[in-house]
Every structure is written in C-alpha cells, then in structure tokens.
Design brief:
Elements: E1 2-6, H1 16-22, E2 26-29, H2 42-53, E3 63-68, H3 74-79, H4 84-99, E4 104-107, E5 119-123, E6 129-133, H5 135-146, H6 157-168, H7 172-183, H8 196-204, H9 211-232, E7 235-238, H10 257-266, E8 272-277, H11 278-282, H12 289-296, E9 300-305, E10 307-310, E11 317-320, H13 329-340, E12 350-353, H14 373-393
Parallel strand pairs: 1-2, 1-12, 2-3, 3-4, 4-7, 7-8, 8-9, 9-12
Antiparallel strand pairs: 5-6, 6-11, 10-11
Cofactor: Fe(2+); Mn(2+)
Keywords: Iron, Lyase, Manganese
Function: Catalyzes the dehydration of D-mannonate.
C-alpha cells in the first residue's frame, strides 16, 4: 500500500518537506482555488504537478497520485443528466487530470453540505482536541437557527426538548460558531459556504429529490463520466457520506454496502470505484467494515483511514485516535493488505491517515481543522506499523 498525505497546496503554509519527513510518498491534493463548476485546465494541473514532483536535489521524490476532489456542482445532484454543461465541465477537468497521468480521482455526492461537524476542538481526556458531531447541537442548529421548512417532523419530542435546552444556553458567539462550523464549508469541502437564507433556499431546491431520484442522478452522472475515465485510465472513487445518514431532510446514497452495490451494478465500468473511508462508514454500527472491503475489494483504489467513537447517543461521535474507537482497524487493514498484494505496482492502493487529533505543539498553532500535522503523523506511524506487521506475517 502506498502512503499518501493530504496537501492543501502552496498557500496552506505546509511545505512538502513536512510530507517527506512524515515518510509519505504520495500526495493527495486538488486545485482548491478553482471555483466549483469551472473546468480545470491541463496547464494548471501540470503546474501543480511540477511543484509537487520536481523535488530539489537530494530530496525524496513525491508523486501526485490522487485528486481529492473535483467538486460536483449542486445542479448535477438535483438534475442529473439534465445538468449537461456542468457535467461537460467536470469531464474537462477529468481529462486535464488524465493528461497529467494522475491515476485516481476522489469525489462525493452529498447534497448541499459536504462532511459535517458541530465542534472543531472537542477536548478529549488526554488534553488533545478532536472534531465532533454532537446530535443535540446539530438539532439545535436545524430547529432554532436554520429553522428549515418541515424540520419538526424529523425529531422526536425528546430530541426537540434537548435541542431547545442546548440552544437556550448559547450566546451570540456560540450561535455564530456553530453556524460557521456547519454552514461555512469545512476544509476540503466540495460544497459552497452558505448564509442561513441561502441555506434555506438551497434546501428548497431539493423539495422533490428523494433517495431514489438522487441515486438516479448519481448514476446518470457516472454513465457520462465513467466511459471517459475508463478510456483515459483513471479510477473514480466515490467517498462515503459523512455522517452516513440523511441530514437536513436530505437523502444520502453512499452510506452502506447496499448503496455501493446498487451503484456498481448500475455502472459496472472498472473505472467506477470506491474511496474506502473507515471514519465515515464506521459511524454506523450496522456497517461491517471488513466485510465491505472483502465484497468490493477490486473497486477500492483509495482509502481514508481514521477512527470515530460513538457516544452515549450513538448519533453523536468524535474522532478518536487511529487505532482506537469503533473501527477494528487491524481487521480492515488485513483485508486491504490482502487485496493490495494481488496488484501490480501501478495499481497499488493509496491510503492516507485521515484527520487526526490536535495535540502537542499544534495546540498552540493555527491549523487546518481536521488536518493537524502531528495528529496525522501519529496516525500514519500507527497505521504503518500495523501494515508492516501484516505484510511480514503474509
């Protein structure tokens, strides 16, 4: 397995030497500065690739092997194949990536909001901080800040009572912080930051989009792009929903093994693949992660490896250390390593230590939420140790 590292580009202030020092060989990155829906150019991708891969004399080489992500415009999710202009632009970006020999593209199909957290610095018992999704705080936002149409029907009496207590205890600063965390697009997000009025307006556009229609739109998108990817030698990898359940009354269609089976049955192209994210899928107790790897092993080209810990209300969770939490990481890695050993070098699975707790010196620095270097470095070291042990045993 190839060790990857998410790099947010030259403006993020993290030098590529830090990636080398972590021991990673593969870069996972994107042209984050390009507006959602605009086509990438071959020249822009080439310029970024040269920055990554033209190592100074004596430095370890790096390879840009995964694009994460080319954002899919909201109109594609709402209208499917009718969003021809947007899909054409996405294909142009794919072609620019392929022209630069970058073999993997990660994407997601979450409507309106991408990955969602209520807290960015939840303090753990060790004194480190982690990202957290607190169900009561989320409900407080949904019911009392966003106040979306029909919201009451999605919560029980007890849910609404707890949410009201949470909201009433918040001052203006706390309300602004919670709104920013949920509506303003987290790092790496492929959706646009939204004001509260714009959020309500966007949700209203999905009034007639249920899970059946959203899945159909995803399939229509893949029916257009997968043949191009296959012809160009690029693997498309869908990222699971995070959290893997409906939010804001919106459907989500990449949360379970059944969701992936439906997608691969509908579009059997070998270019139609999966980004296996243990953190997203592990939030659901009914997801058997090692079984999902075994079932879809040939479709997995990229993996996000992190762990989450469900709390007393299992709808709430926080990011745990990579070998802790509810994910049996050793069992997952055993399956991934077994699949990886079957592959030739160009097709090896790329993984990255996803997210990470904020700890040590990072507690005193400004860091990208979810992506502190030290927490990810700890995670990569732990994962590397497990992988080496499994490879030795094999």
């Amino acid at each position: 397995m190839r060790e990857g590292w998410r790099w947010f580009g030259p403006k993020a202030g993290v030098p590529l030497d830090h990636v080398r020092q972590a021991g990673a060989s593969d870069i996972v990155s994107s042209l984050h500065e390009v507006p959602i829906g605009d086509p990438w150019t071959t020249e822009a991708v080439s310029e970024r690739k040269s920055l990554i891969e033209n190592a100074p004399a004596g430095r370890a080489p790096l390879r840009w092997s995964v694009v994460e992500s080319i954002p899919i415009p909201d109109r594609v999710k709402r209208e499917g194949s009718a969003a021809k202009r947007e899909i054409d632009a996405w294909i142009a970006s794919l072609e620019a990536v392929a022209a630069n020999d970058i073999p993997i593209i990660c994407y997601n199909f979450m409507p309106v909001v991408d990955w969602c957290r209520t807290d960015l610095d939840y303090e753990t018992p060790t004194g480190s901080t982690a990202m957290r999704f607190d169900q009561d705080r989320f409900a407080a936002f949904d019911l009392h800040i966003l106040q979306r149409e029909g919201v009451e029907a999605d919560y029980s009496d007890d849910d609404r009572s707890r949410a009201r207590a949470v909201f009433e205890a918040m001052d203006e600063t706390a309300v602004a912080e919670l709104t920013r965390n949920i509506a303003s697009a987290l790092p790496g997000s492929t959706t646009e930051p939204l004001t509260i009025p714009a959020f309500r307006e966007r949700l209203a556009m999905y009034r007639d989009v249920d899970a059946v229609r959203l899945r159909r739109h995803l399939i229509e998108f893949l029916e257009r792009v997968a043949p191009v990817a296959e012809a160009k030698g690029v693997k498309l990898t869908i990222h699971p929903d995070d959290p893997p359940r409906p939010l804001f009354g919106l459907p989500r269609v990449a949360s379970t093994a059944a969701d992936f089976a439906a997608l691969f049955d509908a579009v059997p192209s070998p270019a139609n693949g999966l980004c296996f994210c243990t953190g997203s899928l592990g939030v659901r107790a009914d997801n058997d992660l090692p079984a999902i790897v075994r079932r879809f092993a040939s479709r997995i080209h990229f993996a996000h490896l992190r762990a989450t810990l469900r709390e007393s209300d299992p709808r709430s969770f926080h990011e745990s250390a990579h070998l802790d939490g509810d994910v049996d990481m050793v069992a997952v890695l055993r399956e991934l390593v077994a699949e990886d050993r079957k592959r030739a070098e160009p097709d090896r699975i790329v993984f990255r230590s996803d997210h990470g707790q904020r700890m040590l010196d990072d507690l005193t620095k400004t860091v990208t939420p979810g992506y502190p270097s030290i927490g990810r470095l700890r995670g990569l070291a732990e994962l590397r140790g497990v992988i080496r042990a499994l490879e030795h045993a094999a």
